[in-house]
Amino acid sequence: MARRARRNPTIARTRARRVGVQRKTVYQALDAACSYFEGNLKRAPKALLEALDRRGLTEEVRAAWRLGLAPTGWQTLHERLSAAGMPPMSRSPRASSNAKNRGGSTTASATG
Question: Which candidate, 42, 46, 43, 44, places its Cα nearest to that of 59?
Fold first, then answer.
């Protein structure tokens, strides 16, 4: 396939376009996840924010480094990204093959 792409510029352009779209989608998902975690930290209990301030992690530092707070469980981020219209990343061929190689499933179970 790689040889054909080198000889046929149309195949190479199509592949590059597809990779570009996939990369953009991944960056959008990562940005949405960061925003979600940042929002969680901003709404964290006052005692937690004060403890971070005492350790030098001021609001400005937290914003510059995009620090956030992850709630318990992975479902909350998944639900947030799904609500934002992000496609499931686990359906990519690479993620599917990795899950199969570990003996896992490529789909989420209903029982968790």
Answer: 42
